[in-house]
Amino acid sequence: MRIDSATRDQLQAWEKELSAQYERICQHELNLDITRGKPSAVQLSLSDKLDGLLNGDYRAGDGTDTRNYGGLDGLICAREMGADILQVPTSEVIAGGNSSLTLMYHAVLTGYLFGFAGNTPWREMKEPKFLCPVPGYDRHFAICEQLGIGMVNVPMTATGPDMDAAEQLVKEDQEIIGMWCVPKFSNPTGVTYDEETVERLSRLGNIANPGFRIFWDNAYAIHDLGQQVNLPNIRTATVENGTVDSVLQFASTSKVTHAGSGVAFVSASPANLASLKEQMQAMTIGPDKVNQLRHSRLFPEFSMLKDHMKKHADILQPKFACVLKHLEDAFADSDLGKWETPKGGYFVSLDTRPGCAKAVVKLAADAGVKLTPAGATFPYGKDPEDCNIRIAPSFPPLEELDTAMSVFVLCVKLASVRNALQS
């Protein structure tokens, strides 16, 4: 089906046929959900050995009684795990609670209220702004929106953010004081930044406001579906370019072990860590070290963690294959949509024809298939092209996902034809 070359008679015939199919599906009263990238129960069960693992032995290797207060940086063994995941020195890692999003919020709040490393607090600027590669992660945007930090869209490409645009914006506007990045298997496109992109990002600190910080959310650092995809090391690049203060990195075990009770990590330069810890000292007497110890005992070697992630990949691969097969079968020879083929992460992103995404999501919802709201992958929920839809394959059983995708591709076709008839 190619909309651009179709006659009006063809479009009307397709609309009638697709509408009939859609009405038959609506009669089935489906209740399927592919909204968020949550691990399935089968994936969560991979880490059930955490329960009772300590067996009454709460002493860490350095003698720390993990049941007690203290240890703002987290246990050494947990920090070593974070260092392995992010490929940074252990001395530059803090191990925290269960959520990297909490650490990101704390870091943005630190920059906003107090500034990093002696730089001007962002709240004292007339209009502080973040660069936001789009489509991107809605929870990143929510942090900025809540604090009143402006957001400037930067298009995503097949190799990462459009760096020509990013560099130009940073040069022209000294009130751009941050940038969100999901560098490996980006949410939602699945793209991994290439070497040139990482190198250029590492140099932004030389042309931006001194208080500028890149928030490097490496949520899917070890979430490869097959052969490992290598992400260039941003820390190495900043050391070479003299911009070590310009990047803060984040990761967690939220999609590695139990999603609601993992361990989160932040890595940064000594100056940035000092700024973070100055505020942390007023808000906590230390993280959940018992949980950190459980994780360290479950994965005493990084190789064991990587073997564990292969088990996740075995569960996820058929689900991603299901989504991609539906898209390929439905749209490969059409002009109805385009997408990347991710090699890891948790999402598949489809761009419909302009002006169709909201209609697709509504049609799917009315047929019993819940999708992430159209526009959620853009700041303020406003997709200027109304075309991007994020698909999350991980949570439902494969059979339910297959049914949901059958409904989804039908809704894309129907919305596209109706849109063309209205134009």
UniProtKB/TrEMBL annotation:
<dbReference type="InterPro" id="IPR024551">
    <property type="entry name" value="AspAT_Ic"/>
</dbReference>
<dbReference type="InterPro" id="IPR015421">
    <property type="entry name" value="PyrdxlP-dep_Trfase_major"/>
</dbReference>
<dbReference type="InterPro" id="IPR015422">
    <property type="entry name" value="PyrdxlP-dep_Trfase_small"/>
</dbReference>
<keyword id="KW-0032">Aminotransferase</keyword>
<dbReference type="InterPro" id="IPR015424">
    <property type="entry name" value="PyrdxlP-dep_Trfase"/>
</dbReference>
<dbReference type="GO" id="GO:0004069">
    <property type="term" value="F:L-aspartate:2-oxoglutarate aminotransferase activity"/>
</dbReference>
<keyword id="KW-0808">Transferase</keyword>
<dbReference type="Pfam" id="PF12897">
    <property type="entry name" value="Asp_aminotransf"/>
</dbReference>
<protein>
    <submittedName>
        <fullName>Aminotransferase</fullName>
    </submittedName>
</protein>
